[in-house]
């Protein structure tokens, strides 16, 4: 589904991704962990098509299509979804208008009929229940004045609406209270299907108890330096990153 | 009667000479009150002329080149001004309003204003100034700076017609009063319009003025609207401008507010050629509240200059200003926010902000707060911003499958909405919301659609 080979990316001549290799197959859950500033969000951003970063080397295939030359909107239409670490507030753009435009754009791309207002509202109601998002939030502008946790829930709500093939969740767990974490994790699990996949970027083992990963990767200094099963997350939780950094430097 | 005036340049006749040549004809058809101002206005105009950018208040818009060239000058109503209904019938009206037309500055004689509340007078300036000279003597010209401003002086020299709205004491006019100003001609035209609004104590009205061009000819419009708002009166005033690129409009709005009155103006420029708005609110009675809002959406070679002047003449008044602009292509704009707080105006609250969104590197905006504060117990704040579209928001929208063009429209709209939210008349707000969106989508018929009623004229391409 997703195949990343030797991906290098830089911003203002500063190289941040230094050769990432990663393969994600349908039905899999991958967790990416790693110290602050190691490049996790950059990887997510580059995959989603942020033009601020320059890809200097490497290849990314998504469903066998080279996506590096695709506009962000086309990647989304192909089924890629990014849950932002810091969702952007967009005052003046209503949630409903935003979601409806978004959903219908995706449908248009798949040559499906746009949803009518009532169909759309029905789906929105369903998905709202799924992520237990407060009704008032969808009457407001996109993320405007949302609390940290509400913003994260809103990302999962959008994911539920758009039903992507591959979801990259960038620290969706941070800032969530315990109940919200469970709700979000449940949401992700309910949306899980044999033909879609999830990449979870997280700092905490806790999320991985709810959403059990098939693989755990450690990103350090712009590279995936270690890959293991879910027990790797436990090890990291217990011992931190020093031993990995040391291993890396010894190489 | 010959109502066609020579070309100003073709015959090398200056505006001053033109006035001298036609003064007797103008005066013959006008009321005494209007005539009594012409002499002094002319003296002023002879000194000032049309303002160039050397005049401080017109620094960002040199009007002189626009008042030159081959023009017919509208000295008396012509034929086309009498057949509006043929080209412009407003039957798709979704807004329930009292609607009246003014064509090339002339009050349309067949306006039908049935059902107005008792005592309310809406009519032609030419007519009412003849019918009720005492009323006119009391108000006409009292707030207009015809002794200092060249454009106001020129307007006062040539003033003959326009609309009058008079709301008597205690009367609330529920339905909005809609004035559709139309420019249409078979040749380039320079026209004058003079309006008067008088709101007596504790009265209330909503007035929307909607400016259109219905033919592709070059137009120059010099329009002045004077308003006297008595104590406890409330006026909501909207000006929607939708004129083609070959139009130059200088519009002065001069409102004087008394104790505890509330005036809110909103100048919405959806499309224009060269537009200059002079928006003056004089807060002359304690606890008066003046709100001046504006939105300008420009592209191509359009130019809009909003000059606002809030005069806090007495204590305990409140003013709030918000002007926002979206500038595309190589359009240019200017905003000046003059706030005067006179020595006695203690406990003044005055807020101002001007925000601009530039969509290209060629678009330009000049923004200038101009605060003159002579009292010490004053709360005053002002801020101006010039920015581009928010890249992060753009990326966010695009990651949701929304393409760049659509995301740009959403963000432009999001930028503009704050001003639209200020529109209190809900159906009007909805209508304008739709129009602004159409405008951003490039779907608004810039030349012809009647902003408020959606009526379209003949097919003519824009410049
Ligand atoms: N716009 C930018 N300009 C300059 N440097 C940037 C920019 N964005 C990211 N960086 C740098 O790239 C590096 C990687 O940042 P990134 O946000 O990908 O880290 P992260 O692994 O997500 O960290 P965290 O765990 O704190 O979220 C950091 O050193 C960061 O300062
Ligand atoms: Mg990050």
TrEMBL record, chain A:
SMART domains: AAA. PANTHER family: ABC TRANSPORTER I FAMILY MEMBER 6, CHLOROPLASTIC. InterPro entries: AAA+_ATPase, ABC_transporter-like_ATP-bd, FeS-cluster_ATPase_SufC, P-loop_NTPase. Residues 2-246 form the ABC transporter domain. Pfam families: ABC_tran. GO terms for molecular function: ATP binding; ATP hydrolysis activity. The keyword GTP-binding does not apply. Keywords: ATP-binding, Nucleotide-binding. PROSITE patterns: ABC_TRANSPORTER_2. This is Fe-S cluster assembly ATPase SufC. The keyword Chaperone does not apply. It comes from Marinilabilia rubra. Belongs to the ABC transporter superfamily. Ycf16 family. Transmembrane segments: none annotated.
TrEMBL record, chain B:
Residues 17-179 form the SUF system FeS cluster assembly SufBD N-terminal domain. Residues 185-415 form the SUF system FeS cluster assembly SufBD core domain. It comes from the Bacteria. One of its GO terms (biological process) is iron-sulfur cluster assembly. Pfam families: SUFBD_core, SufBD_N. Belongs to the iron-sulfur cluster assembly SufBD family. PANTHER family: PROTEIN ABCI7, CHLOROPLASTIC. This is Fe-S cluster assembly protein SufD. It comes from Marinilabilia rubra. The gene is sufD.
């Amino acid at each position: 589904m997703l195949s990343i080979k030797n991906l290098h990316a830089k911003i203002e001549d500063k190289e941040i991704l230094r050769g990432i290799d990663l393969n994600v197959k349908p039905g899999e859950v991958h967790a990416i962990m790693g110290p602050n500033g190691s490049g996790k969000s950059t990887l997510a951003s580059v995959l989603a098509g942020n033009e601020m970063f320059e890809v200097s080397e490497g290849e990314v295939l998504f469903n066998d299509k080279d996506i590096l030359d695709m506009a962000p909107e086309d990647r989304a239409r192909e089924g890629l979804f990014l849950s932002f670490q810091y969702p952007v507030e967009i005052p003046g753009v209503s949630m409903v208008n935003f979601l409806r435009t978004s959903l219908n754009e995706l449908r248009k791309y798949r040559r499906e009929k746009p949803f009518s207002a009532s169909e759309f509202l029905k789906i929105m109601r369903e998905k709202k229940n799924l992520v237990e998002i407060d009704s008032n939030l969808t009457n407001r502008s996109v993320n405007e004045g949302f609390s940290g946790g509400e913003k994260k829930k809103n990302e999962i709500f959008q994911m539920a609406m758009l039903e992507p093939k591959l979801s990259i969740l960038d620290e969706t767990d941070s800032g969530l209270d315990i109940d919200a974490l469970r709700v979000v994790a449940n949401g992700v699990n309910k949306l899980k299907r044999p033909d879609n996949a999830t990449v979870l970027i997280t700092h905490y083992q806790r999320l991985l108890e709810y959403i059990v990963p098939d693989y755990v990767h450690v990103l350090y200094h712009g590279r995936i330096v270690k890959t293991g099963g879910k027990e790797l997350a436990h090890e990291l939780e217990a011992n931190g990153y020093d031993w990995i950094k040391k291993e890396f430097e010894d190489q | 009667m010959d109502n066609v005036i020579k070309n100003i340049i073709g015959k090398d006749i200056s505006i001053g000479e033109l006035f001298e040549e036609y003064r007797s004809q103008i005066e013959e058809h006008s009321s005494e009150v209007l005539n009594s101002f012409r002499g002094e206005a002319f003296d002023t105009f002879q000194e000032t002329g049309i303002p160039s950018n050397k005049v401080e208040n017109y620094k960002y818009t040199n009007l002189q080149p626009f008042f030159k060239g081959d023009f017919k000058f509208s000295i008396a109503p012509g034929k086309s001004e009498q057949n509006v209904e043929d080209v412009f019938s407003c039957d798709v009206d979704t807004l329930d309003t009292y609607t009246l037309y003014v064509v090339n500055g002339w009050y349309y004689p067949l306006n039908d204003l049935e059902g107005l509340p008792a005592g309310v007078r809406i009519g032609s300036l030419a007519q009412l100034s003849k019918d009720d000279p005492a009323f006119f003597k009391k108000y006409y010209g009292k707030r207009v700076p015809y002794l200092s401003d060249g454009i106001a002086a020129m307007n006062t020299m040539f003033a003959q017609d326009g609309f009058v709205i008079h709301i008597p004491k205690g009367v609330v006019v529920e339905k909005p009063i809609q004035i559709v100003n139309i420019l249409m001609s078979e040749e380039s035209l320079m026209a004058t319009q003079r309006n008067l609004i008088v709101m007596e104590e504790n009265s209330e009205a909503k007035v929307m003025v909607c400016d259109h061009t219905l033919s592709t000819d070059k137009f120059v419009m010099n329009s002045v609207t004077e308003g006297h708002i008595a104590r406890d009166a409330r006026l909501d005033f909207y000006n929607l401008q939708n004129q083609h690129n070959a139009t130059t409009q200088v519009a002065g709005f001069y409102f004087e507010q008394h104790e505890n009155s509330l005036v809110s103006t909103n100048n919405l420029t959806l499309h224009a050629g060269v537009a200059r708005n002079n928006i003056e609110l004089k807060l002359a009675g304690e606890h008066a509240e003046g709100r001046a809002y504006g939105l300008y959406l420009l592209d191509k070679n359009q130019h809009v200059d909003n000059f606002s002047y809030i005069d806090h003449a007495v204590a305990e008044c409140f003013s709030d200003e918000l002007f926002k602009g979206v500038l595309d292509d190589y359009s240019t704009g200017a905003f000046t926010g003059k706030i005067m707080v006179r020595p006695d105006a203690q406990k003044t609250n005055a807020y101002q902000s001007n925000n601009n969104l530039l969509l290209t590197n060629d678009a330009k905006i000049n923004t200038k707060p101009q605060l003159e504060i002579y009292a010490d117990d004053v709360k005053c704040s002002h801020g101006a911003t010039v920015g581009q579209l928010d890249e992060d928001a753009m990326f966010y929208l695009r990651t949701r499958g929304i393409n760049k063009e659509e995301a740009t429209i959403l963000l432009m709209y999001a930028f503009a909405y704050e001003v639209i939210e200020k529109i209190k008349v809900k159906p009007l707000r909805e209508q304008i919301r739709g129009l602004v969106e159409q405008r951003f989508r490039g779907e608004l018929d810039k030349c012809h659609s009647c902003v408020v009623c959606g009526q379209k004229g003949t097919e003519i391409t824009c410049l």
